[in-house]
């Protein structure tokens, strides 16, 4: 997970500018980004990207919904800092690992030829989380859009790096995407909230 290639294929920039550029490009030109920006074995930039997105999501959530800040000794500010540190150092990497492991199982079961490596899958999942940087805003509609767009990006990325159709990628990625975008980033809860507001259920 921490492999860092000095000169990766695709020439991705390192540092804050590289993260910002990757965020913009994966949102606006996903097929081109996944085709050129995912390099075998080069997982560290993807991990950094996923951590940045997770911290952004949590920071926004804490800012708009202070009740979500864990209650720890030392006051709200310290509690928020500890919470963000836990997200950056423990939760984001763990969720990325779990989702990638789950996705790998489904890829093995559904993609028999020309399948890319695990490192490419990790990077796809990391970069597909890009829309969720703002999903912490307490708007069910916005959160659902972010989660849905993230799932679409994930399917596009899987299609590009594993050489399958987007429909095939959607079948292979449905369960991992539901876990990440529906459960972790709250897309499922947002959907239920909207449906109840509309009086459907």
From TrEMBL:
Protein localization: Membrane
Yip1 domain: residues covered: 24-184
Main location: membrane
Alphabetical UniProt keywords: Membrane, Transmembrane, Transmembrane helix
One GO cellular component term: membrane
Transmembrane residue ranges: 44-65, 77-102, 166-195
InterPro entries assigned to the protein according to its UniProt record, in alphabetical order: Yip1_dom
Membrane topology listed for this record: Multi-pass membrane protein
Name recorded for this polypeptide: Uncharacterized conserved protein
């Amino acid at each position: 997970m921490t492999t860092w290639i000095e000169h990766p294929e695709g020439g991705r920039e390192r540092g804050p500018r590289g993260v910002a550029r990757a965020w913009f490009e994966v949102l606006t030109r996903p097929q081109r980004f996944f085709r050129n920006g995912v390099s075998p074995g080069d997982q560290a930039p993807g991990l950094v990207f996923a951590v940045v997105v997770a911290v952004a999501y949590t920071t926004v959530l804490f800012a708009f919904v202070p009740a979500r800040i864990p209650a720890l000794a030392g006051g709200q500010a310290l509690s928020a800092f500890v919470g963000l540190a836990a997200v950056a150092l423990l939760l984001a990497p763990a969720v990325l690992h779990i989702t990638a492991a789950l996705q790998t199982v489904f890829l093995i079961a559904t993609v028999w030829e020309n399948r890319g490596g695990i490192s490419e899958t990790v990077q796809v999942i990391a970069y597909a989380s890009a829309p969720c940087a703002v999903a912490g805003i307490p708007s069910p509609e916005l959160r659902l859009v972010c989660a849905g767009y993230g799932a679409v990006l994930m399917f596009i990325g899987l299609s590009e790096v594993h050489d399958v159709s987007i429909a095939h990628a959607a079948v292979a990625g449905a369960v991992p995407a539901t876990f990440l975008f529906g459960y972790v980033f709250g897309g499922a809860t947002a959907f239920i909230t909207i449906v109840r507001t509309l009086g459907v259920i």
